[in-house]
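Hallway conversation turned thread

IA: we were arguing at lunch whether anyone had actually written out Pyridoxal phosphate homeostasis protein end to end. Turns out nobody had. So, for the record, here is the sequence (223 residues) and right after it the structure tokens. Reply here if something looks off.
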Amino acid sequence: MNDIAQRIHDIKANLPGNVELVAVSKFHPKEAIMEAYEGGHRVFGESRANELVEKARSLPDDIEWHFIGHLQTNKVSTVVPYVKMIQSVDSERLLIKINNAACDTSRQVDVLLQLHVALEETKFGFTLDEIDALLGTGLLDRLNMVKVRGVMGMASNVDDENRIRQDFMAIKSAFDALKGKYFADDSDFNIISMGMSHDYETAVECGSNMVRIGTTIFGEREY
């Protein structure tokens, strides 16, 4: 087993069985992705539209691509033909654009609603009140080619373990509130994507069932 595949194996061995690992391959070469692929991993995360498309076109078709970065609306039609999930839906306009592009390609796209709970203003995402207002309009009933599967969020980039835990608990609480109010009968609304290389263990303790890990698997980014 190669080094990358071994690191993925070690991470998975320590994750609860209900937690899915997204290997964040952004800024890393296709050769590194193939090392993970040859070890049996299939789910990868990218954050730049052109990079995702270039990789998806040249790597095996059974890879499940997740878009995890801020997605500009003018790039939606570029990525929709290749992605299984867009984790970073942070506006009504983006949600509608994804639905329109999915209609054009006749394929349903899974999405997560990105929550902003972190201290940094630079991070994107909805507040819970904004999602509540959006869903309260009945918009999802009119968007038949996107499937809202859950929420995604990031903790504050701080050394304060209590703050990080507080952020993750806020994301979990928001998921629970949305599930109870809008998705109680939808078994597919079941994903809480939170936790990265430096904090995923805390995220899992707080209820995450999807973690996005890059550096621990692939090393520092290659630009």
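OS: looked through it. The chain has a mean pLDDT of 95.
IA: good, adding that to the notes. The longest helix spans residues 161-182.
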